[in-house]
């Protein structure tokens, strides 16, 4: 059933109930009306930002009753099922989107997209909505859960050029031509790659372990533009979306030209 049909049905039920109880139409609507879900992705994105930036009462119009928000830190994944639990972390006025929203092609009635925020040194999130309501909202943050990191802006042209060079080597080290030696040219010896699936998180440390997933045949193709974040001197930070598993978002950090963190969110079970 579409969101518009659900809203009309809810209004009809409320009015019918009111008639039976002898209530006015206004009282009926306050009794049982469910807010109509967003009719476009632009509208839903705007409502979601408002909900997170000081209007948590909108969360019921943004998330499905069984919608889930997760936040994957370096050391833990926290999970918030349903609008009431999401309200415990939303509404504090701290979400500033930077860079483009990346829309991912899916079937009709199913919206998927990635967005990027200045929060905590640069955060990347992957969303899925059905019938105008968010059912998954999975984010990856470049810090430990109790670590403080300031908000950032976008990187300058010099840093983006350095990231270009790393990404060229990185893309060549995954897929058919992958090898431990090739990965060691782009990953630090103690680099960590983590993949957050819908139901679990898998972690790989160092080029030898990363090769277990990097060595699958086939190229990893980007979707949309890369987003480059500000970072301290000697470090680089960026995020992007790829075609892996139908559309995955990854967050990268590099020090002295080598990737030290590569954290991804995938829209499938692991």
Features:
alpha+beta, single chain, disordered N terminus, Nuclear Transport Factor 2, Chain: A, six-stranded mixed sheet, 270 residues
Describe the structure.
The protein contains 8 helices and 12 strands. The chain has helices spanning 3-21, 25-32, 41-52, 59-62, 82-86, 157-173, 180-184, 206-214, and strands at residues 63-72, 77-81, 102-104, 110-117, 123-130, 133-140, 187-196, 201-205, 222-229, 235-242, 248-255, 258-265. The chain is 29% helix and 33% strand. Among the domains are: 1-36; 157-265, Nuclear Transport Factor 2, Chain: A (Roll). Residues 1-34 have low confidence and may be disordered. A hairpin with a 2-residue loop joins strand 11 and strand 12. It is globular and about 55 Å long. The chain has a 6-stranded mixed beta sheet with strand order 2-1-6-5-4-3.
- Give me the oligomer status: single chain
Largest sheet: 6 strands, mixed
**SSE arrangement, N to C:** HHHHEEHEEEEHHEEHEEEE
> Mean pLDDT score, rounded?
88
Shape: globular
Fraction in helix = 25-40%
- Main-sheet strand order equals 2-1-6-5-4-3
pLDDT < 50 stretches: 1-34
**Number of distinct beta strands:** 12
**CATH architectural group of one domain:** Roll
CA radius of gyration is 21 Å
